[in-house]
């Protein structure tokens, strides 16, 4: 099982099902946020589902804020701008699936990049 630690944002990802294991239609992995973990708003050209297992999240989906915890389910359709922050003192953990499988490049489109371009172009 591959694991990635995104040190800059306090996020750990453990891959469970992906192309390395022969999956062709979707991926599944465990996500854990440290107490200060945060992922800025972004969107994808695919759908994601989330099953929250531990901790409490402040989540944003297309500008609407939610507080999610163990047993809660959430879904972000293709193009839905979403982001998460750990709202608790301990770890935040969820199981995530993506379908169709993300492309090898350009699967994340962060809001901050679009804001930078708007400012740079003066619009």
In short:
The protein is built from 1 helix and 11 strands; from the N terminus they run βββββββββββα. It is mainly β and 123 residues long.
Could you describe the 3D structure shown?
With 123 residues, the chain is mainly beta. 9% of the residues lie in helices and 50% in strands. It has one helix and eleven strands; from the N terminus they run E-E-E-E-E-E-E-E-E-E-E-H. It has one helix at 111-121, and strands at 3-6, 11-17, 27-33, 38-43, 47-54, 57-61, 64-68, 73-76, 82-86, 92-99, 109-110. The protein has a six-stranded antiparallel β-sheet with strand order 1-2-3-10-5-8, with no helix packed on it. The chain has a five-stranded antiparallel β-sheet with strand order 7-6-9-4-11. A hairpin with a 2-residue loop joins strand 6 (57-61) and strand 7. It is globular, with a radius of gyration of 15 Å. The protein starts with a strand and ends with a helix.
Topology, please?
Layout: E1 3-6, E2 11-17, E3 27-33, E4 38-43, E5 47-54, E6 57-61, E7 64-68, E8 73-76, E9 82-86, E10 92-99, E11 109-110, H1 111-121
Antiparallel strand pairs: 1-2, 2-3, 3-10, 4-9, 4-11, 5-8, 5-10, 6-7, 6-9
